Fold each of these.
Amino acid sequence: MKRTLTVCPYCGTGCMFYLVSDSGRLIGVEPSTTHPVSRGGLCVKGWNAFGFVHHPDRLTTPLIRRDGKLHPASWDEALGLVAERLREIQERHGADSLMFASSAKATNEENYLLMKLARGVFGTNNIDHCARLCHSSTVTGLAETFGSGAMTNSIDCFDNTDLILIIGSNTTEQHPLIGSRILKAARRGTKLIVADNRLIRLARHADLHLRHNNGSDVALLNAMMQVIIAEGLEDREFIAARCENFEAFAASIADWTPERAAPLTGLQPGEIVAAARLFAGAKRAMIVYSMGITQHSHGVDNVRCCAALAMLTGNVGRPGTGVNPLRGQNNVQGGCDMGALPDVFSGYQKVSDPMVREKFTRAWGVDALPSTPGLPLTRAMDAAAEGKLHGMFFMGENPILSDPDQGHARHALKNLDFLVVQDIFLTETAALADVVLPAACYAEKEGTFTNTERRIQRVRKGVEPPGEAKADWEIICALAKQAGCDKMHYPDPSAVMDEIASVTPIYGGISYDRLDPLGLQWPCPDRDHPGTPILHIGRFNRGKGRFSPVIYRSPAELPDEEFPFVLTTGRTYFHWHTGTMTRRTHLLDREERRSFIEINPDDAARLGVRERDDVLIASRRGSVRAQARITGIVIPGVVFMPFHFTEGAANALTNNVLDPESSIPEFKVCAVQVRKAP
Ligand code: SF4
């Protein structure tokens, strides 16, 4: 039996475990007892992270579409065709008629290489990844406020803090090991405020549970901050020394009284006052948020308000404080760090900066690099639907299930001249592709992932990939060669990381020999640097923290007579995103086999719906069938639905409206009707 230390492929908590294999096949995992995050524990997904690896559905050979069907092909044939068609589209319609979608499931090295391929080989900044769908509002909002879009503190800080405000994060289900840290902290006396209109598990342990209306976070946070200033509870010393634009900000929220916020939030004014006093009274307070904050048409404004509340009370740059967006996927932080974004190279270095472009031009040995920021993924889907984008390359993404308004996503992809999908299974998106490239999964390759607390950790190969599948980094380099680029040769991923370190200041001190056993937290600018557990100590990355006035905007689509319910979407404990891996893991799939909605008992009684009845849910964009779960977890007028399932897909219903600054879709609020299925 062989044990291989690696990182969990599911959430951004970044637990490490040993893959246990026997005769080249995985037979289980064992948690790492010494790891600072796992500490000998795993959640149900971690314990079962080996379950899909040898599934018979794994892609084992490249596939090419001929006469409407996908047929097996050789690597040379498939990559030759991909290179030829992408070059053809580039020549005919321009480089910006191509789009490359990288992946938060792939390693840092692979994200960096796909970014290099898009920019350095095909000459476009049209490169993005699924952070667009989860935390692009964090990157925009926190970068503007603090100068860095990452979690400010470390997971260890949850053990030593006085108060945690959890807003828009179902932490025990989505980041279970962080959720259990929060529950342990609560048992030791740390106060909890949970702002979420679902009765999530953490809410049952909260000192205060605010069940505010979906999409009313700005009203709630502005009113809390109004109370803090009106009662003189703000940290004047911190504001004077560390922040700017406070006067304008204070003036902007002066009339956001709890009485004004009450009808918008659905809360009593007294609840808002109590939350404000409790938060401001804590010596050390942490804010934890996730997609309940970010996935709105005003997601950036929500993030600005969270950041302002932390600055207002002096809760940044110290242990046990900070603004802590919990990144969703295992390497979504790394995907952003590696510049799989349309406006920055690795390390958030802007493509519009001539000095930065000059540096990358020299390092990559290319003549020039594009200077205009490219298309965010969501805008690229719109462009494809309108016939303005002609070729797309998806690495490990499944937009048919993950993007809003499935009908729109399907139309966009079918409208392309050429679609390439590189993945481990024939996903709903791969089934539409012209060429499918079979990739190795996390357990079959080397590399690094960066977790939610900016910790860069080693991913190690435990078993061989199936059939002819190859690691994403190998496929990208082979494609670059087929496209005529002779500058993307690497003996192994460690050499890619050496190149990343040489051009990326926040990763400047990272090399594989330094990552054992616990990884390093960026920024880590040189080889002697120990890494940075807490950001913004003494000084914000941008100098002073900036208060930004925020104008309240309601969600884009609210219930009416025809569509009387709010639909909010999310995840369950047992499944992961589009279910590609967890639905092929027997023990996880057994727990949740089909799509469902949570509906309040009052609504169910009115509609004549009984527990486990089938219901039809319809929005202006589509309709699906799912099973009803009658529960007080949701309030009357709101239904919740997970988006993991292809049958009864929640994203057939969601609204493709985008935040104007971050282009994130509004997955958390749309209007639907619900009726008992015939
Ligand atoms: Fe994996 Fe996240 Fe569970 Fe840890 S908490 S085992 S990283 S899914």
Amino acid sequence: MTNIVEFHNVRKSYGALEVLKGVSLSVPKGSVVALIGRSGSGKSTALRCVNGLESIQGGELNVCGRKLHEAGVKLRELRKDVGIVFQSYNLFPHKTVEENITLSPRLTRGLSKAQAREVAQRVLAQVGLSEKAASYPEQLSGGQQQRVAIARSLAMEPELMLFDEVTSALDPELTGEVLKTIEALAKGGMTMILVTHEMAFAKRVANQIVFMHQGVVWETGDGRMLDAPQTPELRNFIGNGL
Ligand code: ADP
Ligand code: MG
């Protein structure tokens, strides 16, 4: 099976602070990997390394056929293949939903206006917001805005999607619709890595769960590992919630 992402003993420091201390993990094409762990365990840093927002200091990191541990990787090319969605959705407030979505594809993929509109319609349908193309962000709920942010990423036709706690800023009643959108993408075969605190969701959707602790992969397995943790650290993390 092809791996879209491979970490081999990856090390990453911010100055003197080593945050990733030899992380190894693989993401096969079409699979969903959920990263869980305490705040500060290095989950966001790991994701940011995958799309080149952070450089690594040791080990090897292969993403979509590129060797990020070697010099000369074209980050702009990499980021066409790797979409990332954060907790804050950062839509342009003075642009419509459709304009927010078509901006990047027009600039970086050279699509005509008509082609970009077609793409926008398709990705809005994927996130269940076809009727909102002409709306402005402030006219949407937080959950809908986050789904637009996901659609905006999909419009680049990425090979891999990264989600970093995309529901953490949302009211609980809006979380479900965003998770449903992500679950539908997963069912459609999208390869993804997601950082989440939603354990039931991770268990249901992820093929592999990775518990990060103190900058390494402490424990990994399928959803069953959440019912039968092998280490006191994972047991403690699950038991105490977050
Ligand atoms: P998580 O997402 O699991 O909460 P992070 O990857 O955000 O963890 O952070 C891991 C550690 O790295 C934390 O101690 C955090 O303070 C530190 N850190 C994260 N980003 C930076 C940065 N840009 N500069 C310095 N330290 C950082
Ligand atoms: Mg984080």
Amino acid sequence: MNIAVIGTGYVGLVSGVCYAELGNHVICVDKEKDKIRVLQEGGIPIYEPGLKQLADHNRELGRLQFTFDTLEAVRQSDVVIIAVGTPPGPRGEADLQYIEAAAREIGDAMNGYKVVVVKSTVPVGTNEKVQQIVRSRTDQVFDIASVPEFLREGSAVRDTLYPDRIVIGAESPQAVELLKQLHQSLTPEIIVTDIRSAEMIKYASNAFLATKISFINEIANICEKVGADVTEVATGMGLDHRIGPHFLQAGIGYGGSCFPKDTKALIQIAGNADYDFKLLKSVVEVNRQQRFGIIDKLIATIGPMQRMEGKKVGVWGLAFKPDTDDVREAPALDIVQTLIEHGAIPKVYDPVAMDNFRSVLDHPSIHWCRSALEAAEEAEAICLLTEWKEFKQTDFKAVEQVMLRPLLIDGRNIFGPQHFKDTQFLYYSVGRPAFGQGHGAMQTLMG
Ligand code: UDX
């Protein structure tokens, strides 16, 4: 099939490369000329494991091209996929200006039957709007379909090539047939729904996963108060098939480009329909507060925030999760900002997200470190905010040597007691008893 993908952000680029890998001829389009130039020259503007190799392979086979000429790309295609951004507007609602602009251009380029697929996450009813815009600009016959994307950053290629399910929201048999053909080699789990339900499936899935995270985080907070261990609790809960083991990892909460945006957008969608989505509002609020649990633990151990003045605090991990350089809505942003506000000196290190973090939050008191060990030097505490693999392999005997006080506050629960048994470390995590040498501090925390 000939496919045009409009928008080369995460979803568009990964989808485009993966559709090419399935044997289709794909043209990816973007308005940002610099981005397209990078792609044309063989670069990949995002950090995503495996994506470059797959893109190179398909480029060599002549199945993958990049252009900023939307009209030409659409003219050459049977399927046109809209994968542009839907950033949050002032009240959390999805801003549809890029979707609408893409629809206008598609309408102007129509030269025969095409299926227009919306992959961007859009409020219920948006596909119909796209249909109206395209129809207002052409007499050609076309169909519209919603095929939401469920890929995760860091495992985007795998998630796209081996999805749990494909959702096709389409009402024309011709479009359904074409899209089934396009996706049939990926999974037998293809569900066909009406367009509005497909749009809702995406929001409902993300909102449910966010709810699971905020739920386990609140359980973790209670575990801390009653002396239980949330990792044991999550294991015990997850063995019930109705609950399942995934997304029950307690920590400092979710970030990224999807959960924060989509939860707020769904609250807004519900509100527009006169429905107060109370549960999801709480999920968002719990997530906002959860990241500050790290600061509470610092206060419990080092002392009140006014005593932070001039103190160095190592910050391990800035990306919102491992295997990505994405810092959008990352808990690290709020945590580092709070440290700065209290006069502390954050010594930050991330294996790949340093530049992105600096472009959002740059401040003279931040020390930009080249290694985890450097970030620990002369620090009063280390806050671990992203569960990068390299942190799991830390030699804590070496780290202990360079710190002023061997204190680790682990926002992602990646270690067990055995890691610290030959050290002086005091270790705090989320929803689990503290362990290590400083039992006095542990008492403080347990209240
Ligand atoms: C998410 C959805 O998983 C994906 O289906 C959708 O298409 C886009 O949004 P992504 O944001 O890339 O993907 O990352 P994901 O792995 O889902 O993690 C999201 C956030 O939740 C991260 O900040 C992660 O640290 C956090 N998380 C995840 C937890 O805190 N606990 C968990 O158990 C799982």
Amino acid sequence: MRIAVLKETAERERRVALTPDAVKRLVAAGHQVVIERGAGAAAYAADADYEAAGATLAADAAAACQGAEVVAKVQRPTAAEAALLPRGSVLVALLQPAQSAEGLHLLADLAQRGVTALALERVPRITRAQSMDVLSSQATVAGYKAVLLAASALPRFLPMLTTAAGNITPAKALVLGAGVAGLQAIATARRLGAVVSAFDVRAAAREQVQSLGARFVAAELAAPGAETAGGYAREQAADEQARTLAAIAGAIAEMDLVISTAAIPGRPAPRLVTAEMVATMKPGAVIVDVAAETGGNCELTRPGETVEAHGVTIMGPLNLPSTTPAHASAMFGRNVLTLLQHLSTKEGALQLDVSDEITGAMALTHDGQVRS
Ligand code: NAD
């Protein structure tokens, strides 16, 4: 296969879809890889490293796309980038939310151009596809980084310290949503010495939280029926939501840092921290709302901004994985590599089978049609 990697053009995007390590493996398997010059620069992957891995460099996106069978990106292409994709090629990128007007327009355009668009967000959550799952790998980065942001904004230490200048008690952290990002946030906060509690609506999360040494808040509220067949949480009914809010309100006042990661696929983030709850928190406490991207778990979160209310700092960072671009790209690239191996025959030819469980779930356009 001839695979092209484009330089990201979206604001705040520092990742690259394939790193030199992944390129080396593709080239060893007989594929041709073309990298747009500077594509990895913001992730500390130099053009020279790609060349050493066996890739060819192209001066710009147009040159990289020429003759490409697969084009790999992190973010969805702009209209100008989409216009460069060869007829019959496969685009691999984050393409959601495809439901937005802009997203629908892009898909119609790609279908009309005969491009098969594979959305990385749609990798099915099955064991076989785990190593292609960018949502998981990037959530790991986000959970880790959220704790570091909170730690550096806090006016106090996280660990317990016993020093000649006095003893320091450990910080108390609450993690809301114990999925991939939340579990990584728990592990990171524990490594820094905080005493960690966590809450999730899925019963399966309880054991995972406890195995990381954190306390599970309001275990009675985490019900087996809260999980969908895909392993995600379903939206809560009004009475369940009220009980959840009461449990969080009971725990949040004593917290120094709150990392909120709760999400429902395709829906706005559930509101778990109200303005009244923030008013009960200690001045100097910090909330990092990882769910800011989908509106935020805290009522006072402003996506992309840091605000202060009642002495509490509320951060709503966007695209957290991009702020740790080297490792985020290494993990993203490994996911894309595994997907490309899945799309390749033993002889190295592109095989696009939309009846396949993985490829079919990811294909938003194929054969000139937009698929649902
Ligand atoms: P996500 O990003 O959609 O949601 C994050 C967390 O928020 C989830 O744990 C969810 O239960 C929780 N949540 C939703 N509403 C909530 C509420 N009102 N209050 C508190 N918490 C709420 O999910 P995710 O982290 O991407 O994945 C969730 C789970 O799916 C993982 O923990 C894992 O078990 C499973 N998973 C499986 C695979 C696989 O098998 N390949 C891959 C990734 C994840």
